[in-house]
C-alpha cells in the first residue's frame, strides 16, 4: 500500500471546504436576490382606475360638457380633433416593463399644465420659467415638458 500524502490530503480537504463555502454563499445570494422591492407604488398602479383622466374627464365628457369645457378650455369635440391631430407626434408604444401613457392623456396633462402655468404667471410677478418650476408636478409619470420628441412615425 502506498503511503498517504498528508499534505495532499489536507489540500483536498481545504479545497472541499472552500467549495462548500462557495455553494452556501451562492445559495444565500440567490435567496437575497429573489426578495424584490416594490418599484411602483400601488397608488400609481391604480392610476387607470382612480386617476383624474380615467374618472373625472370621462364623467365630464359624458355628463357635463360645459364643465369639461371649463376644465380643459375646449369642447370634447375640439379635444378629440386636437388629439387626432397630434397623436402621431406624441404617441409611444407600451413595453413589457411599463404601459405607455395614451396620447389623449398626454394631451390632457399638457393642456392642463399649460393652463395652470398661464394662470400662475398672470396671478404673480414670476417669469414663465419661474412659474413652470414652481407649478405642480405630474405624479406617477413623465412631466409633459420631458416627453421625448418623436422624429419617426409610429409603425
Provide the fold topology.
Layout: H1 6-34, H2 42-45, H3 47-50, H4 52-63, H5 65-72, H6 76-90, H7 103-123, H8 128-134
Helical amount: 55-70%
Number of strands: 0
List the secondary-structure elements in sequence, H or E.
Answer: HHHHHHHH
Radius of gyration: 29 Å
Overall mean pLDDT: 78
Strand content: under 5%
Largest sheet: none
Distance between the termini: 78 Å
Tell me the overall shape.
rod-shaped
Query: Low-confidence runs (pLDDT<50, min 5 residues)?
Result: none
| SSE-based structural type | mainly alpha
Q: Count up the helices.
A: 8
Q: Any overview of this molecule?
A:
By secondary structure, the protein is an all-alpha fold. It has a domain of 104 residues. Helix content is 65%, strand content 0%. The chain contains 8 helices and no strands. It starts with 5 loop residues before the first helix and ends in a 21-residue tail after the last helix. The mean pLDDT is 78.
Amino acid at each position: 500500500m502506498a503511503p498517504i500524502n498528508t499534505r495532499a490530503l489536507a489540500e483536498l480537504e481545504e479545497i472541499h471546504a472552500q467549495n462548500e463555502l462557495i455553494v452556501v454563499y451562492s445559495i444565500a445570494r440567490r435567496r437575497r436576490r429573489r426578495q424584490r422591492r416594490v418599484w411602483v407604488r400601488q397608488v400609481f398602479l391604480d392610476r387607470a382606475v382612480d386617476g383624474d383622466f380615467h374618472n373625472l374627464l370621462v364623467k365630464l365628457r359624458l355628463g357635463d360638457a360645459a364643465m369639461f369645457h371649463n376644465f380643459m378650455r375646449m369642447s370634447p369635440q375640439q379635444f378629440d380633433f386636437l388629439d387626432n391631430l397630434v397623436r402621431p407626434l406624441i404617441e409611444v408604444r407600451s413595453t413589457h416593463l411599463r404601459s405607455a401613457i395614451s396620447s389623449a392623456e398626454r394631451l390632457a396633462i399638457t393642456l392642463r399644465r399649460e393652463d395652470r402655468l398661464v394662470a400662475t404667471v398672470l396671478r404673480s410677478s414670476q417669469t414663465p420659467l419661474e412659474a413652470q418650476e414652481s407649478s405642480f408636478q405630474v405624479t406617477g409619470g413623465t412631466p409633459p415638458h420631458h416627453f421625448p420628441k418623436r422624429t419617426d412615425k409610429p409603425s
